[in-house]
Specification:
The protein is globular, with a radius of gyration of 18 Å. About 35% of the residues lie in helices and about 20% in strands. It is an alpha/beta fold and about 210 residues long. α4 runs parallel beside α6. α3 links the parallel β2 and β3. The strands form two sheets. The chain has a four-stranded mixed β-sheet with strand order 4-5-6-7. Strands 1-2-3 form a three-stranded mixed β-sheet. It starts with a strand and ends with a helix. The protein folds into two domains: about 60 residues, Methenyltetrahydromethanopterin Cyclohydrolase, Chain A, domain 1, CATH 3.10.340.11; about 140 residues, Methenyltetrahydromethanopterin Cyclohydrolase, Chain A, domain 2, CATH 3.30.1030. The mean pLDDT is about 95. The chain has nine helices and seven strands.
Length: about 210
């Protein structure tokens, strides 16, 4: 799996049509979740899709169960909040700034356990604050729909959810991928709205399994 700024340069996903944002880059950086370095053919293909020369591509490679692999997934708390808002058809241009945090789980002995723990860290432990402009009523309306608890999939360890769908990510409810709790701060009115909460019990089950 690949992530990072190179996605915006490649712009192959429908997401970039929907948000109307692509990058014309002269250099690209990306992260690959993998247990070994990619062959030259993969690097050349990525460079071609990004529209750059191969020597202008930098790839960071780490298995999910490593410290680096774990950290780069858990660090996506704000990204998951924006992803959820996009899924809910919210106008992302209203967002001024964002910050977030999530607990760093213990390293796992296998990739599947690592994927489970890192996703649980966000779904059941991430706390995000977004600063936005506009009216308060729309924030009150959409707020309860943002946290992961709003999904019917909520309440099980992520490894159990993956097992239920035979490890097919695309069968999992996309509305599940969101932080545990979120605070929306309206910079126009000064009002704050808080939704969701951490689930310490599920975090403990996940991190100690």
């Amino acid at each position: 799996m690949g992530s990072g700024p190179m996605r915006a340069a490649a712009g192959r996903e429908a997401l970039f049509d929907e948000i109307g944002c692509r990058e014309d880059a002269s250099e690209c950086v990306g992260v690959l979740e993998a247990s070994k370095l990619p062959p030259d053919g993969v690097c050349l293909e990525i460079a071609e899709k990004c529209g750059i020369e191969p020597e202008r591509l930098t790839l960071l490679v780490a298995p999910t169960r490593s410290l680096c692999g774990t950290l780069q997934i858990v660090a996506r708390s704000v990204e998951t909040a924006l992803h959820k808002l996009h899924e809910l058809k919210f106008d992302l241009s209203r967002i001024v700034a964002g910050r977030g945090s999530a607990p760093l789980p213990p390293l796992a002995s296998s990739g599947s356990v690592a994927i489970g723990r890192t996703n649980d860290a966000i779904l059941y432990g991430a706390q995000v604050t977004l600063e936005l402009r506009g009216d308060d009523d729309s924030l009150r309306e959409i707020g309860p729909r943002i946290p992961s608890a709003s999904s019917a999939e909520y309440g099980r360890r992520f490894v159990e959810i993956m097992d239920h769908y035979n490890y097919d990510f695309y069968k999992i409810d996309p509305l599940l991928f969101s932080p545990a709790e979120i605070e929306l701060v309206n910079v126009d009115t000064g009002n704050r709205f808080h939704f969701g909460q951490m689930n310490q019990q599920l975090l403990s089950q996940s991190f100690n399994s």
